[in-house]
Amino acid sequence: MAPPSPEPPETIPGRRATLRLVMHDGRDRELLAEALGEAYEIEIANGERPLAGEYDAAVLDLGGLERVEDRLAEAKAADGAFLPFVLLLEERDVGSLAPGRRAAVDDVIAMPASREGLRARVENLVARRRTSLELRRQNERLETFASVVSHDLRNPLSVAEGRLELAMDGGGEEDLEAAQRALARMRELIEDLLTLAREGTDPDSFRWVALGELAEECWAGVDSAGATLAVEADGELRGHPSRIRQLLENLFRNAIEHGGADVTVTVGELEDGFFVEDDGEGIPAGKHEAVFETGYSTGRGGTGLGLAIVAEIARRHGWTIAATDAPGGGARFEVLGVERRG
Fold first, then answer.
1. What is the pLDDT of residues 188-212, one digit of tens each?
2. DSSP-assigned letter for residue 292
3. Which end of the chain has the least Cβ crowding within 10 Å, N or C?
């Protein structure tokens, strides 16, 4: 009985690793594609930019190396992770390979080589790439987590500081209670963001939430200055309560920061979702999709994180969010695909 075929290696979950063949010898290229085609997606390098695009390893013969050797370092640097290059060389030529060329690639395989040996050598390099990509993804998640934490903690921290200052200047128990609620919200945010970073949004944690009541609770925890909240929602939606609260808080904060101190923010229901809109200046023309990009901000001193956080929370719930124009000319954000009742 023939041994079972190895599982196709993956570098990104759900996608087989891709090998880019940069080879001058057409016959060797065909033989290699046949030998590795069961385990990898095979791409043949064509055109003037044989190293451009996305792939997980490149296999070269001597003619291919001569074609791209002045661009190998640039391709590796642009990828941002470990991107392996493998050189196939006739066994008689291995000893005479120039040191500079040997240093430019990650492995040199003497040919002819067995199919099993060839696969094992390539898979070892692809495994290193998988590890490198995962490390890069972890670093990106860590950077995003740090940015989200610093962004979303600013508001309850500001509320707590302001209320404590009022209490110290002779305020009453109400100020201390408000400061205590803000500190409790900070603790909740930290715990929830840690869970989000480690585990994502678990559907098992979804609950029915009264949208109107939650909106009013969120508004009480936002530094709203002279802004006004109007709630036109009496139904419920299903989701993670704390994540929905985080989404609303960021939408409210965005409306206040961009709509002015006397802006009116309205929360209402849609057939398969809900909306948050304001009567401020609205979103600049042509920027309705860009507002969700990390780092994008039209406000002076803005972090460009608030709406990116909103979009990520919606995505993790399986919802969609779109920015549009409110009937009165302000900004309107519609969250769709939401399970609702009432």
1. 667 656 655 554 556 667 899 999 9
2. G
3. N
Reading the block at residue 254, the tokens are 């965005």
Query: Could you tell me if 231 and 102 lie in one domain?
Result: no
Q: Angle at the Cα of 126 (from 99 to 95), degrees rounded to 5? A: 25
Domain that includes residue 243, residue range: 203-341
Last residue of a domain, one of 115, 135, 155: 135
Q: Walk across the sheet containing 331-336 and list its strands.
A: 228-232, 264-270, 273-278, 331-336, 320-325
pLDDT in tens, 50-104: 999 999 999 999 999 999 999 999 999 998 899 999 999 999 999 999 999 999 9
On whether the pTM is more than 0.90, the answer is no
User: Which amino acid does the sequence have at 306?
Assistant: G
Burial group, residue 65, by CB count within 10 angstroms (0-12, 13-18, 19+): buried
What's the CA gap between 116 and 24, in Å, rounded?
23
